[in-house]
Design goal:
309 residues, 4 domains, Helix Hairpins
């Protein structure tokens, strides 16, 4: 046991196991200001060896002791602990005395923001922008916390963020028997796992149709691809997929062929659309560099300034 002062770092109320003997010893135990544990603050001249309990090693007087060489005892960091802060902030915003705008929101009023945040996250992924990815993940998380907090206030059928998390845990465990239940002979690789996931989902939800559960509100190209994938797993013959000369049928046919070939038609189209937008901007910048107004360019001008592949 060390003879000098010891700083004990608690994480979300969790005490490192190595610190327990110290707290039962004859050492004096103190806490940093603001830490409500019923412990006295550290005096200016504490007698003999002592223990300082803190939840922040950078806060005085913990920081001073650490810099002076005090022994630090800290347990393993708990992943996900920061989510508790996010839940607490959301609760504060929705509670009386919080933010008027946040307090007025409903599931319906937040729909537009959920869609926007998901597309901004998708853009960050496509751009490979790590800073934006981190931020946009937080914005999507905010939507989850917001909707769960609103649901908690429903007098008829309330549920909380803990209920949401518990449902997710149960789903992940039940859909991964090869991981949590000692094995599943139907799962041999990522491809068979994807098929098994859909089979287990069908059993759990007792769906009557192979297309039950497909989000009909998703973008049309992605919707067509998902329907083609689901029905192919159900054994639907390919000649029953929509086909025709009209634009809608032709687009559905292209989306189905791409999905069944193992590609993501929505992602492929987005990539082409983004490259096209980049080419448009490049041509417009080149035109301005030669004092040509992009809004007045002729077809010949566009061809002249269009970037070469």
């Amino acid at each position: 046991m060390t003879a000098g002062p010891t700083v004990v770092l608690i994480d979300r109320g969790r005490l490192p196991a190595a610190a327990v003997p110290l707290l039962w010893s004859d050492r004096s135990v103190y806490a940093t200001p603001g830490l409500e544990l019923g412990l006295p603050p550290l005096p200016s001249s504490p007698p003999g060896p002592f223990v300082l309990v803190t939840d922040d090693l950078t806060a005085p007087p913990a920081a001073a002791l650490v810099s002076a060489g005090a022994t630090v005892l800290a347990g393993p960091r708990v992943d996900g602990a920061g989510l508790l802060d996010a839940v607490a902030v959301m609760d504060r915003l929705r509670s009386p005395g919080g933010c008027p705008w946040d307090a007025e929101q409903t599931h319906d009023s937040l729909r537009q923001y959920l869609v926007e945040e998901c597309f901004e996250l998708l853009e960050a992924i496509e751009d490979g922008d790590r800073a934006a990815l981190r931020e946009e993940l937080g914005d999507v998380l905010l939507q989850v916390l917001f909707h769960a907090r609103i649901a908690q206030e429903d007098p008829a059928d309330p549920f909380s963020i803990d209920d949401v998390a518990a449902g997710l845990v149960a789903k992940l465990v039940s859909r991964h028997p090869h991981v949590f239940a000692g094995g599943d002979p139907a799962v041999r690789d990522a491809g068979t796992q994807e098929v098994r996931w859909e089979e287990l989902k069908q059993q759990e939800k007792r769906r009557e149709s192979s297309v039950d559960g497909v989000a009909m509100g998703q973008p049309a190209l992605a919707l067509a691809a998902k329907l083609a994938q689901r029905t192919a797993r159900a054994g639907l013959p390919g000649d029953l997929l929509p086909r025709g000369s009209d634009p809608g049928s032709r687009l559905f046919d292209l989306a189905a062929l791409a999905k069944l070939a193992g590609t993501d038609p929505e992602g492929e189209l987005r990539a082409v659309a983004r490259r096209f937008a980049d080419n448009v901007r490049t041509a417009e910048r080149a035109a301005r560099a030669e004092d040509v107004d992009p809004s007045r360019m002729t077809p010949t001008d566009w061809h002249h300034f269009w970037p070469t592949p």
